[in-house]
Amino acid sequence: MSHRPRRSALYMPASNARAIEKARGLACDVVILDLEDAVAPEAKDAARQQAVEAVKAGGFGPREVVIRCNGLSTPWGAEDLAAAAEAGADAVLAPKVNGPADIAAYDTALSGAPAKTRLWAMIETCPAVFALEPIAACARTSRLSAFCLGLNDLAKEMRCRQTPDRAPFQAVLTLAVAAGRAHGLTVLDSVFNEIDDLAALETACRQGSDFGFDGKTIIHPSHIEACNRIFSPDPAEVAQARAVIAAFADPLNAGRGVLRVEGRLTERLHLTQAEALVGAAEAIAARSDATP
Known about the structure:
This protein is an alpha/beta fold. The chain has 12 helices and 10 strands. An 8-stranded parallel beta barrel has the order 1-2-3-4-5-6-7-8, surrounded by 7 helices.
């Protein structure tokens, strides 16, 4: 199981050289160089070249670098995928995925990319909602390794309102996490649109954490701190997890499936959860130590 932190994934317009340079020093876990929504049509070609140059130049430290391409059905998609494959980014984020056929097409387009380059999929269309599990299952036969929720586009297609409690989307959020977990994907929550309302952002992050998301995509550096803090394991939970691991490692408990740990009934399924939690906490600590 990979414990690489993906608490905060910051979209940066690849057309903005100053923003890319700034991203090299931010505390986000992931930098997404955006060629799609954040870039005007007349700037697409220049943005693509700039994204490739940024990936090749490096300097992002422990941050993952992802390129969000334009869709294969657009005039820029094929060139975006070819350039991203050649650049060797950590991942390519495919927009508006509708089903397994789209994953197969993007995977084919990335066939010449280094093995480390993964495929991430935007979940932001109505057809995708009804194909979450089949899309996630493509992880078995492709580079697919993550879902990123895109509720702005989904709201437009559904003609629904984005209420503070996200009630119109709660079924989608739950099913996206469940499908991702069924096939070992990282699952990242959608962006929060109100840039300056940090109190409401915190509420949205806590909701996303409660739903089981690994982290959140964001559109402004001011959102990094809340995401990193809220999507990190709680220290008290980590301490409890270490106690569970120690209890099952005790030779006196060899062969036992159920234990009493600090007053709680603890089964072997809790051991698996504890190991994952501690692994995540240790990865975040290592990530923090490596951040400039």
